[in-house]
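Fill in residues.
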């Protein structure tokens, strides 16, 4: 329990710390003045691609099938998605093999730490924990990546950086848990959709957890766990192409990372 509390506290403290610093750019969207500058690099800006082409790319991700990332793009041309497209991508993410596999890891983690005792033990208890963990994940994905982004006009996709130091790219990836772009805008704003989706999913968990495991504390704990877990997806999506190129000799981005790096270097040369 102590390890889990420290992990959640560190992740959330780092994320809200990013929100605590004022933005370096003038605010154009509500709440954008809360977004951290922290020398985090901007998402790469690429040539424009028709919206339909972007959706096709989203639905045919290049990551391994067990780690499908339908809400990740290596392109920087963020043409806004319609509400229907956001819901479609959220549903495909919520029903991907990774979405079904993660709950079994979470269930084992909870069982090792002697949590959710109301589910019992053995195969039956493990299955119930896994089922509850999947419902948490499904709810948070559909609400945080589909429903709320449609209502709040926020961008649910993660746009990879693809260049720079490991530290900068790692910070950029983790920051997406707490910040996002408004539809069609380059300004950062608080990621109300992701944070709200995870917290709402935590509250809904009262409907299917044993009575001795429910209440405000349980809801907040489940929401915080979902927020912490939501950092894993961007981190994997950011660095998987590098791992693939180095060890599998395959380039999942088909040169987009190289283009973004070249554009960044060219911009730096022009500024000198």
């Amino acid at each position: 329990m102590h390890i889990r509390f420290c992990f959640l506290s560190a992740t959330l403290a780092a994320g809200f710390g990013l929100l605590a610093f004022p933005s370096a750019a003038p605010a154009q969207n509500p709440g954008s003045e809360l977004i951290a500058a922290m020398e985090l690099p901007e998402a790469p800006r690429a040539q424009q691609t028709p919206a339909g082409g972007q959706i096709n790319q989203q639905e045919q991700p290049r990551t391994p099938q067990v780690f499908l990332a339908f809400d990740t793009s290596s392109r920087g041309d963020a043409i806004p998605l319609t509400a229907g497209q956001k819901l479609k991508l959220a549903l495909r993410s919520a029903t991907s093999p990774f979405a079904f596999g993660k709950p079994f890891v979470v269930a084992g983690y909870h069982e090792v730490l002697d949590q959710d005792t109301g589910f019992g033990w053995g195969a039956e208890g493990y299955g119930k924990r896994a089922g509850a963990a999947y419902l948490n994940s499904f709810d948070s994905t559909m609400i945080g990546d589909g429903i709320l982004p449609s209502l709040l006009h926020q961008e649910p996709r993660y746009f990879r950086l693809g260049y720079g130091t490991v530290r900068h790219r790692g910070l950029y990836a983790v920051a997406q848990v707490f910040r996002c772009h408004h539809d069609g805008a380059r300004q950062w704003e608080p990621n109300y959709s992701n944070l709200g989706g995870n917290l709402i999913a935590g509250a809904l968990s009262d409907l299917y957890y044993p009575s001795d495991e429910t209440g405000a504390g349980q809801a907040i704990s489940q929401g915080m766990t979902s927020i912490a877990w939501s950092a894993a997806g961007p981190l994997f999506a950011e660095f998987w192409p590098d791992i693939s190129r180095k060890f599998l000799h395959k380039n999942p981005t088909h040169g987009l990372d190289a283009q973004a790096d070249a554009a960044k270097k060219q911009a730096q040369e022009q500024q000198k």
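Residues 66 and 98 are 5 Å apart (CA to CA).
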